[in-house]
Structure formats: structure tokens, C-alpha cells
Design brief:
Chain B: It comes from Arthrobacter mangrovi. The complex is a heterodimer of chains A (about 280) and B (about 575). Chain A is mostly helical. Chain A is about 75% helix and about 0% strand. The longest helix of chain A is centred in the last third of the chain and has 37 residues. Chain B is of the alpha/beta class and about 575 residues long. Chain B has 22 helices and 21 strands. Chain B is globular, with a radius of gyration of 26 Å. The chains are: A mainly alpha (about 280), B alpha/beta (about 575).
Chain lengths: ~280, ~575
């Protein structure tokens, strides 16, 4: 897989043997990812308070035994809000990545398999999309479609699609012209069978690795949109929105921004470490 | 030969191990000035590791020990890395197999050689510039002033190798080590490079030539050492070792060289090559599995054990029934700079049932394009391919597909022709079921029979092709090609990437299978010896055209075309046995 081969040089087994910590990091990332997924599925099991319950008397409390991560301007428990924030953040990230990959799969496959003109046309469209920075593309879409969770999911998906599409197109074009496909044609296989059995599975395996890597990015972008007030509406427990709310009080109540921020970093880091681990496995296969 | 008896290189009891796994065991060598010692062996024999140890580059994780390692009386065994740098390039020149990767593609060859010269501080800038030109002239590059300004990508393979040799001998090293210096080159270029190497000895350097190719060795070496499994099993004057070898392994190597063995004689020494011990399924069962020639009296297991001094004509349809006809094939491409390039130019040939047509030519002569046209992987611009008398080229792929089973293909690099996700069993099941099934279990019996046919045990079904050796992979590729019971097999350099003894086994296998099933082969190779051994008729290709074709023996005995004569003259003559 061409996109990985360049990494082989500094990610070889000898290196892994010399730095056993890499292995430990992967296990830690997997555990953290499991924890986040658990929080997203069963937030009430982990969170001691209602994330939306207002209690003005407890406003701006620093982290303590009762409120691990402190409380916000309305006295809501930050820890509970961070736990409850896992679900929208991860859902938005996963849905956006799925939309991005799906769209990229259509465009990339069409470009990789279609004739010269289709490849040319799709290539130019992707270049136009590339010309706009990803987040700007998402903002443009939201400006047209209006803010909200659904729009921000679609927006993030749209803005990640061109990158994936490029890679899928390259992979498919490469596998398509490989001796293996030629051998299948010589054996008399129909185009549909060659595509389904040989081209797609071999071309897409690395794309799923990229999807894992991209998940973290999607979470960050979704949070960014919420931070700008374009995603989840204010009272909702969502990491980006919490960051935005805490920003005003950064000087007095640092915990309001630190903990949601750490959650975002954790999610993104997990996806990166796990994606890399998958990548290494794909290379060594 | 130089009368100077002082040994330039003296190596005693060299041992190299990687991770406790010995790669070189107790190798001792001695090379006097002006003499060439050839170290011969197959891949994995430890010859390259030996050579690299001599320049202190055995590799990371290598444990190297030697009782004695002396260059002109100076001990090298205890050198530090820093001291080694003074020896490399200056006192020992190293020539690698692939000049394309050994030369920096971004630098001109003049600068590469200049770099080598700069190691010796005695040259001024102007001296160096002059010396670069004289070196390029010494290695036989025309127009040195212009060549010095070119980068490796602008030069042909032979010119690159010459440039690399120039940089290796720039400082007149006492010892020149050449590791497979001609393996990547065409026959005519190979002959020129070998002449050049032979000439280097006259400068008084000692030379260590590493090669797997006995023919190459004989034309240059004064003495030969044969290596296998990390040990030197036989050494002595070239004429003696190659002429009357005393060790079994040397004999096996010599026997495996196909050139001087007539069509139909076996190349591999043992009747059942490695991996076939388990293949003792009865002949009848195997024959029933893939029945091509019903007349075949016995299965392949039996065939394999029978010594076959003569070709068996039985089972061959009457001569003159062409199975494949190519008439006036033409195919052109556009080069990256938009110039039209005619790869195949008016090529016509016929292949009859049970016959092998050898297609021989140097790289770029259009052999592979011709094969792609025949396989229906590319459409000819002009001319026509007919398969069993019916049109084959010019049809939509949909109409060709049902007849694809008639014609199979075996490639030079089998691994890249396998889907990396599939096991051997799945690959064969896919081929057996016409692509409908990947279930190796459902086709277990047929798969085992196919594997037996190519001399592999049935347990290989669970293996991934990556875990197999080169020869085993090619066997799997052959089994897959035979699964749909083709009548014609296009073999494109099927054994070129293999060691000579493995090559011998694969060629023998192809021969047996042809006899067994009455197959017709279009056998493509750049190796005259291999083509001569395999073919009934031979067509010689040059620049997209067939310049000569005819019965193999006749063509080799009295070549008519100048290019054929040139090719034959360039082919280094294999040692006689």
C-alpha cells in the first residue's frame, strides 16, 4: 500500500522492540477509547449529577470532592457535563466521518474506475474543494443551511470528503493497474467480480485506517463548530459549546474550559494512536 | 596473470551471524594482486554477507569474527568505524548490482565520481575534473565530457554500471569487490561490462566477483570458490572447478544451467525437487484431476521420476494445427514527451498444439507487449490474433471472456499477480471455480491435486503466498494457471527472478506439464540459454520486430540475422559439464 510504505522505515518491528512504550500507549489509548464509548452509551452510570440541572448557589465552584471538575456559571456539575458530552461529540465525529468516507467512496471509486474524463472532472472538483480550508468549507455550508447538530455533521463530513476521495482514487487506480487484476482478467473474471473481489477490498483496507485517524479530527472540527455557536445549541452538554461558555470566565474559573478541552484532546489522541496502530498492522501484514 | 604472489586480501575463518543465526561459517579467502576470485552461490548462501563483511558493512545486528582479515598485510579486523571510512572507497572499491539505486538520481555522474576522488586528498580540483573524464573514458563511456554532466536517470543500465565502476576504481583501490555487477543487464551489455571488469585486473587490482551466474564467472574469474549455506564447499582454479567439479553442489549448479542441455533433458539434479517428498499421490488421480491429454499413460508423479533423455512425441496433435496465430501485430504508445513509440511492429507468428515457441530479445524489444496483445490485455493497433482459428483480438472483452480458459499466463513476479489477502488455497479455489468461490475447503481435493501437480504438499493451501519462497510461489502461479485447464500458457520470464537451481526445477516442471497435458507455450525470456532449452522454435525480437524465427537448433546453429549473431556472441558461454 503505497501511502504507508514511506512510514515503514521508521515504524519497523525493531523500533517497536526498542521502544516497548509504544505498545503500552496503544493499550492505554484502547482503554481510554473504550471508556469514552462507555460514557457515550451510559452517561448516567458515570455522572453523579444531571448535566442540565441549574443550581445558582453552587456556581463557579473550584474542583472538589463533591464536584470533581468544579461547576459552571449556573452551578452545573462540569464532570457530569463532560461525561454527557461524550455522546454528542462522538456521534457527531462518527457520523461526520461516515458521511465523509461515504461521499469519498463514491467520488474516489468513480474517478479511479471511470474513464479519463470522469477522473479529470472529479479531480478538478476536488481541487476546488481543496482550495478552501476544511473548516471554512464547513462554515460556508452552515451559512447556507443554518446552524444545528445535523448541519454541522453534514458540514464536517463534506469538508473531510475531498481528502479521503483523493486517497481512495489513488488506491483504486493503483490496484486496478496491478498485475493481480491483470491475472484475474486473464482468468476470465467479469469486471464486477474483479472490482468486488480484488480491487475494492485491497484498495479500501487502508482507507478504514485513515477513517480511524480522521475520527479524532472530526471530533475536533465538530467541537470547533459548536464553539463558534454553530453546532449544538448552548445549554446542551457538548464539549465545544462548554469551551465557548467557559471562555468568558477563563481568568476566574479555569476548570470550565480545561476539562472539556482535555476531553477533546483525549478523544483525538485516542483516535490517532489507534489509527497508527492499525496502520502499522496493515503495513506489517 | 600477474606473477606477484603477495596476497592483497587474506581472510581466514570469517564467521558472521545475525541474531545468533549463522550466515557465514568459517570462510577463508586469499586473492593475489591482479587476480580475480569469484564467489559463487545461490541467494542465501552468504556470499553477499561475506563481501559486505570485507568492507565492514555486514549490517546492523551482525556478529562478525575472523581470525585474520588483512588488506595488503594491514589488519582490518580491529578497525573502528572511522578508520573503516578510510579504507572504503580508497583501498577497497565496491560495485553493486543495481547502479540505478546506487547512484544518486539528483547528482550528475561526474559529481559522483568526483566525490569518490575527494576521498583521496592528493587531487586538486582541476586534477579531479581531468581524472573524472579519463576514468569515464577508461570504463568505455563515449563522449565523457557530456556524460559527466548527466544524471543516472538519463543513462542506460549499461552506462550506469560503467559510471559506478568508474567511481569504484577512481582511487585505484587494491581490492575491487563486485557484487552481481551484471545481473540486471541485457546479454550484450553484460558481455561488455564483463570485458571491462576483466580489464581492471590488468591495473593490478585484486578482484572479488560475487555472482550466482556460473557463465559470468567463467569468463572473468581466475579462481572460483563455491559457497552454499555459509560455507565454501569447493575452490580452485576456474577451469578446474567448473570443468571437473569435485563437490556435489558444484555439479548440481553446473547441471542446472540450461544453455547446453538439449530440449527435453532434465536440469534439476534430483527427480523430486525440495517440497515434493510429500507429493506421492497416485498418478491416475492426478491425471484425472486436470485432464488435458487423455493419452498420457501415467500421472505427473510418475513422469517426474522418469529420466527423460528424449522428448515424448505422444499426445501431440498433428503438426501444423495452429492454436494461436498472430499476424502483423502492431502496437504503439506515446512516450511521456508525447513522441509515438512503436513497441510491437508487424509481429507475426504461429503456435502449434503441444509446441513451445520461444520469444527472445533484450529488455525493451517488445516481448512483453506482444504477450499482452496475445493475452487480450491490450488491443493491437494493427494486425490480428486468432485463437484456435477464431478471432481473439478486436473483440469486446465480454465475448472473449468465455474463451479465456483456453489461454493462461505465468508471470515473472508471481507474488504481485496474487491477491495479497488470499491464501494459496483460496487462490486456487478462485481459479478452479471460475471466480465463483473462495472456499478452499469445497475444492480441497482439486486444490491438493493441483498442488501435487506442481510438486507442493497439500498443506500449503493454508499458507499465504508471502510466506513462500520464490520457487514455491512460481509453482503456485503455475498451478493457478493450469486450474482452468488451458491449452496455451504464456510464460513471461517465468524463471528469470529465480536462482539457477530453482530455475532448473521450474523449467523442468513446465516441461513435464507440457508433456502431460499437451500444452502449447509461448515462452518469453531474455536468456538465450533458457529459451534454447525450452523451445521447439524460436523467434528473435529486436526493437519491436521479429528479425528471425525458425526451429531452435537451426537458429542457434546457423543464425541468419546479424542481431541474432550478435546476441549469440554476447551470451557468455556457460561452462561445459
Amino acid at each position: 500500500m503505497s501511502i504507508f510504505s514511506s512510514r515503514r522505515s521508521h515504524r519497523d518491528p525493531a523500533l517497536a522492540a526498542r521502544f516497548p512504550g509504544l505498545r503500552g500507549l496503544e493499550i492505554a489509548a484502547a482503554a481510554a477509547a473504550l471508556f469514552l464509548v462507555f460514557a457515550a452509551c451510559f452517561p448516567t452510570l458515570l455522572a453523579p449529577f444531571d448535566p442540565l440541572a441549574i443550581n445558582p448557589a453552587d456556581a463557579f465552584q473550584a474542583p472538589s470532592a463533591a464536584h470533581w471538575f468544579g461547576t459552571d456559571e449556573s452551578g452545573r456539575d462540569i464532570y457530569s457535563r463532560v461525561v454527557h458530552g461524550a455522546r454528542p461529540s462522538l456521534l457527531i465525529g462518527a457520523a461526520a466521518t461516515a458521511i465523509g468516507l461515504g461521499l469519498a467512496l463514491l467520488l474516489g471509486t468513480a474517478a479511479g474506475l471511470g474513464g479519463r474524463w470522469l477522473d479529470f472532472g472529479i479531480g478538478r472538483i476536488l481541487e476546488v474543494l481543496f482550495a478552501l480550508p476544511g473548516l471554512l468549507l464547513a462554515l460556508v455550508f452552515i451559512a447556507i443551511a443554518g446552524p444545528g447538530i445535523t448541519t454541522s455533521v453534514v458540514a464536517v463530513g463534506l469538508s473531510t470528503a475531498p481528502g479521503y476521495a483523493r486517497i481512495i482514487r489513488g488506491q483504486i487506480a493503483q490496484v486496478r493497474s496491478s498485475p493481480m487484476v491483470e491475472a484475474a482478467v486473464v482468468l476470465g473474471r467479469s469486471p464486477a467480480r474483479v472490482l468486488g473481489r480484488h480491487i475494492l477490498p485491497n484498495a479500501l483496507a487502508p482507507v478504514f485506517v485513515l477513517g480511524t485517524l480522521g475520527l479524532g479530527q472530526a471530533v475536533v472540527w465538530a467541537s470547533s463548530l459548536s464553539f463558534l455557536g454553530l453546532g449544538a445549541p448552548p445549554p446542551a452538554a457538548e464539549w465545544g459549546a462548554m469551551l465557548a461558555a467557559g471562555r468568558t470566565y477563563l481568568g476566574t474559573a479555569w476548570w470550565m474550559t480545561l476539562f472539556p478541552g482535555l476531553a477533546i484532546v483525549l478523544a483525538a489522541a485516542c483516535s490517532t494512536v489507534l489509527g497508527r496502530a492499525l496502520q502499522r498492522r496493515a503495513v506489517s501484514r | 596473470m600477474n606473477s606477484n604472489n603477495e596476497a592483497v586480501l587474506r581472510l581466514e575463518n570469517l564467521n558472521v551471524a545475525f541474531n545468533g543465526e549463522p550466515a557465514v561459517r568459517g570462510v577463508s579467502l586469499e586473492i593475489p594482486a591482479g587476480e580475480c576470485l569469484a564467489l559463487v552461490g545461490e541467494s542465501g548462501s552468504g556470499k553477499s554477507v561475506t563481501a559486505r563483511s570485507l568492507i565492514g558493512l555486514a549490517g546492523t545486528g551482525a556478529k562478525v569474527s575472523a581470525d585474520r582479515l588483512e588488506l595488503s598485510g594491514r589488519n582490518l579486523a580491529t578497525l573502528s568505524q572511522r578508520a573503516w571510512r578510510h579504507v572504503r572507497g580508497r583501498r577497497i572499491g565496491f560495485i553493486l548490482q543495481d547502479a540505478l539505486v546506487s547512484l544518486d538520481p539528483l547528482r550528475t555522474i561526474g559529481r559522483e565520481i568526483d566525490d569518490a576522488l575527494r576521498l583521496g586528498s592528493e587531487y586538486s580540483r582541476r586534477d579531479r575534473a581531468r581524472r573524472v573524464l579519463s576514468l569515464l573514458e577508461d570504463v568505455g563511456l563515449d563522449n565523457p565530457a557530456q556524460r559527466a554532466g548527466q544524471r543516472s536517470g538519463e543513462l542506460s543500465g549499461g552506462m550506469r554500471q560503467r559510471a559506478l565502476i568508474a567511481s569504484a576504481i577512481a582511487l585505484d583501490p587494491e581490492l575491487v569487490i563486485a557484487d552481481e555487477p551484471t545481473t540486471a543487464l541485457d546479454a550484450t551489455v553484460q558481455a561488455q561490462i564483463l570485458d571491462l571488469l576483466a580489464g581492471l585486473r590488468e591495473r593490478g587490482s585484486a578482484m572479488l566477483l560475487i555472482s550466482h551466474d556460473l557463465a559470468v564467472v567463467e569468463s572473468v574469474a581466475d579462481r572460483v570458490a563455491v559457497m552454499t549455506d555459509g560455507r565454501i564447499v569447493e575452490s580452485g582454479p576456474a577451469a578446474q572447478v567448473l570443468g571437473s567439479p569435485s563437490h556435489d553442489y558444484t555439479r548440481k549448479l553446473l547441471r542446472a544451467v540450461p544453455a547446453d542441455h538439449a530440449r527435453g533433458t532434465r536440469l534439476s539434479a534430483s527427480p523430486a525437487p525440495a517440497g515434493q517428498a510429500a507429493a506421492h499421490v497416485s498418478g491416475q488421480a492426478a491425471a484425472a484431476g486436470v485432464s488435458g491429454a487423455s493419452e498420457a499413460p501415467a500421472g505427473p508423479a510418475a513422469v517426474r521420476q522418469r529420466p527423460l533423455p528424449v522428448r515424448v512425441p505422444a499426445g501431440r496433435p498433428p503438426a501444423g494445427t495452429p492454436v494461436l496465430q498472430a499476424a502483423g501485430l502492431t502496437k504503439s504508445f506515446r512516450t511521456p514527451d508525447k513522441k509515438p513509440f512503436t513497441a510491437v511492429d508487424g509481429v507475426s507468428f504461429e503456435l502449434s498444439a503441444g509446441e513451445t515457441l520461444g520469444l527472445v530479445g533484450e529488455s525493451g524489444s517488445g516481448k512483453t507487449t506482444a504477450a499482452r496483445l496475445v493475452l487480450g490485455l491490450a488491443e493491437p493497433d494493427g494486425g490480428e490474433v486468432r485463437l484456435f482459428g477464431r478471432p481473439w483480438s478486436g473483440l469486446p472483452e465480454r465475448e472473449r471472456r468465455s474463451r479465456r480458459t483456453l489461454i493462461g499466463a505465468v508471470y515473472q513476479d508471481p507474488l504481485s499477480s496474487f491477491d495479497p489477502r488470499l491464501t494459496v488455497g483460496q487462490l486456487l479455489a478462485d481459479a478452479l471455480s471460475g471466480g465463483r468461490s473462495l472456499n478452499a475447503k469445497a475444492h480441497a481435493a482439486d486444490t491438493a491435486r493441483l498442488l501435487d501437480l506442481v510438486g507442493l504438499p497439500a498443506r500449503f493451501t493454508a499458507r499465504g503466498p508471502r510466506t513462500l519462497s520464490g520457487g514455491q510461489r512460481q509453482r503456485v502461479a503455475i498451478a493457478r494457471a493450469l486450474a482452468p485447464k488451458p491449452k496455451i500458457v504464456i510464460c513471461d520470464e517465468p524463471a528469470s527472478a529465480l536462482d539457477v537451481s530453482v530455475q532448473a526445477q521450474i523449467l523442468d516442471l513446465l516441461d513435464d506439464l507440457q508433456r502431460e497435458f499437451g500444452l502449447s507455450y509461448l515462452f518469453i525470456s531474455h536468456d538465450l540459454g533458457v529459451v534454447r532449452h525450452m523451445s521447439d522454435r524460436v523467434a528473435v525480437m529486436q526493437r519491436g520486430r521479429i528479425v528471425e524465427q525458425g526451429p531452435a537448433e537451426q537458429l542457434f546453429a546457423s543464425p541468419q540475422h546479424a542481431y541474432t549473431r550478435q546476441l549469440l556472441a554476447a551470451a557468455v558461454h556457460p561452462p561445459r559439464t
